[in-house]
Amino acid sequence: MSMRKDKSSTKTSPEKSQSEPTTGVVELGVIKIPRVNLSLERITLPFEAPEKYLAAIAIIASIFLLAGGIYDLSENPIAIGGRGSRFLAVYPGLSVQFLVESIGVGILIAIGSLGFYFLRYSLYDPEDVQQSFAYLFTAILCITFALLILAGLMIFKLQGGNL
Known about the structure:
By secondary structure, the chain is mostly helical. It has a domain at 51-158. Helices cover 53% and strands 9% of the residues. It has 6 helices and 4 strands, in the order ααββααββαα. It has helices spanning 7-10, 14-19, 51-66, 69-75, 99-122, 129-158; strands spanning 25-28, 31-34, 81-83, 86-88. The strands form 2 sheets. It has a two-stranded antiparallel ribbon. A two-stranded antiparallel ribbon has the order 3-4. A hairpin with a 2-residue loop joins β3 and β4. The radius of gyration is 33 Å and the shape is extended.
């Protein structure tokens, strides 16, 4: 009994090699897994922008959005209002805001953010206790001031201008 190999079974047929490319596909039995490069392209600016400037622009944009900047651009509110002979910087209701009100809220949010910045730097150098305490005190002062004024403005608006 002689065992002969069939030469036709060992060669690959030209049809199989043309229909299935050998590069880019991994065969695991029945499953064929394509090799796909899923890496994202890196966005590059035409100039070298420092990261601190980009962070500052992002912070200013978020303060603009939080203070109601989209409302100011779309509705064109009046700058300041009045009741009788006195002027109002804060509209007594939640449906409308004055331009001065949104600018003031933006400044208060910036003061609160500055407080969190000082809070971060109070932990920067634990060896210099006096400087760390000064940063911590300034941080607590800024955050508390901004929070109390913003809460007072919100209570004023919720009560319809009656304090």
